[in-house]
Design brief:
Elements lengths: L1 E2 L1 H12 L7 E4 L5 H6 L8 E6 L20 H11 L7 E5 L7 E8 L1 H4 L7 E8 L14 H14 L3
Parallel strand pairs: 1-2, 2-3, 3-6
Antiparallel strand pairs: 4-5, 5-6
Length: 161
């Protein structure tokens, strides 16, 4: 799990050490373009991304800065879905609801038969995009980063959610 630059590092660890870790959580960071070009994980891995849509430090919408370029948050989630052999479109939902959303949730869900390997808790790539939130550890009335991390650990590390 990593926040900001730690999130960039978490992406790198997921690329290079997927045989060691069972999953990853990235908060307030998207993947660098140079890393995406060279990323070849050896194992499938569930990953959750949490990012504010008003983040301009590690821009939610990506950036074009040469070696410091970033994929957008949605491109990052799609990148990891493809690396995990998930080719279907994401399921989109909203928290608290469609009429008054504060969080958009993109869920790339794999069928274990499709990926050819069982992963505890199934294999999902999830992006929580928070409206009106910048470069921070998000906690709002509708969304709590700490709770999402706890749920991720329970689901993917123990299979008990």
């Amino acid at each position: 799990m990593g926040y900001s630059q730690g999130g960039l590092f978490t992406d790198r660890i997921a690329c290079e050490m997927s045989n060691v870790f069972k999953g990853a959580i990235v908060v307030a960071a998207n993947m660098s373009v140079p890393l995406s070009i060279n990323c070849e994980p050896s194992e499938l891995m569930p990953i959750t991304f949490i990012q504010g849509m008003d983040d301009v430090v590690l821009n939610y919408y990506g950036s074009d800065n040469g070696n410091l370029s970033l994929l957008s948050a949605k491109e990052t989630a799609r990148f990891w879905a493809l690396k995990n052999n998930i080719i279907s479109s994401p399921i989109t939902s909203y928290i608290p609801n469609d009429q008054d959303p504060s969080v958009e949730v993109l869920l790339y869900k794999a069928d274990n038969n499709q990926i050819g390997k069982e992963v505890i808790g199934g294999l999902n790539i999830t992006l929580f995009s928070l409206y009106g939130v910048g470069h921070t550890w998000p906690s709002t009335k509708e969304f709590n980063t700490n709770s999402e991390i706890n749920d991720f650990i329970l689901k993917y590390m123990t299979g008990h959610l």
